[in-house]
Amino acid sequence: MSDQVSSTPVDAPRRATVQPWSGPAHLSPERVEEARRLISLYPEPRSALIPLCHLAQGQDGWLTPEAMVDIAGLVGVTPTEVLGTASFYDMLHTEAVGSHVVAVCTNIACLLGGAAALLEHAEVSLGINVGGTTADGVITLEEAECLADCDRVPCVQVNHRFVGAQTPESFDRLVEDLRSGARSEEIPGHGTLNRVRRTVGLQVDPDQVASERAEAAAAQAERAAAAVAAKSAAEGSGGGTS
Ligand code: FES
Q1: pLDDT of residue 182
Q2: Same domain, 105 and 159
């Protein structure tokens, strides 16, 4: 056997050329303004990444690559980091979905309550497999883990709103309603969060946030100074005892 080492060079890591971000190009001015307000609530801009993903998903119904570029620029990370984070969460969709994401829970309580038969019916009646979207772009079918509504089985959610236990018959009526828009008030298009629609309720005062941050920074500096002083004192008193 030859002990010659191959002369083939190891590939250097290849990096996509990152274009300098020149400002939001995809998110609407209103969403950008809201994004900046959200960022101001956190000590670090990148901490607002998830809320910004929801904000963008509310605009497009899913998290588009263009939106991820804007989010990355706004919080100071790369689009790949946005994708890497967003793809971890079930509520964030990094591929196009229908205007209504219908989730059927197949966890144990729902399974015992007929979830498998309901899911099979859904696939047949919609003409798609789990994960697919109907040709009219209205329904994306998902299989979900426990949705925490185990006393109403099999549990179904549409755009993360509970719609109660469903039978195959009621499921078909639900789909008809979604297609006709009969439940659009109760179940808005995918990506619309309740808190985005809220106009009253808990609001954080930016001045209060700034003052709390200043207090926290001062307390941290005080603790650091005390730790340095304690260390110096310990070194001073213990220097000749070894
Ligand atoms: S098992 Fe289906 S909601 Fe809990």
Answers
A1: 96
A2: yes
Residues with CB under 6 A from ligand 1: 105, 107-110, 146-150, 153, 155
What value does the mean pLDDT take over residues 203-222? Answer: 82
Q: Are residues 139 and 81 in the same domain?
A: no
> Cα dihedral sign for 218, 224, 229, 234?
positive
Note whether 117 and 184 are same-domain residues.
yes
Ligand 1 site-directed mutation target among 142, 146, 157, most atoms within 8 Å of CB = 146
* CATH code assigned at 34: 1.10.10.1590
Query: How far from chain centre, in Å, is Cα 215?
Result: 31
Test site for ligand 1: of 90, 106, 107, 166, most ligand atoms within 8 A of the Cβ: 107
Task: Please identify, among 161, 176, 191, the residue that sits at the C-terminal boundary of a domain.
Answer: 191
Q: Report the separation in Å between the CA atom of 121 and the middle of ligand 1, taken as the mean of its atom positions.
A: 18
Q: Label the pairing between strands 161-165 and 155-158.
A: antiparallel
Same domain, 104 and 80: no
Which residue, 194, 190, 220, is CA-closest to 95? 190
Q: What is the pLDDT of residues 89-100, one digit of tens each?
A: 999 999 999 999
Atom of ligand 1 at shortest distance to CA of 107? 1
pTM, entire model: 0.74
Q: What is the pLDDT of residue 210?
A: 80
73 in the same domain as 36: yes
* Tens digits of residue pLDDT in 46-84: 999 999 999 999 999 999 999 999 999 999 999 999 999
Which range marks the domain in which residue 81 is found?
29-86
Q: Which of 106, 110, 112 is the best mutation target for the ligand 1 pocket, counting ligand atoms within 8 Å of the beta carbon and taking the most?
A: 110
Q: For the residues of 59-83, what is the DSSP string, one character each?
A: HHSS--HHHHHHHHHHHTS-HHHHH
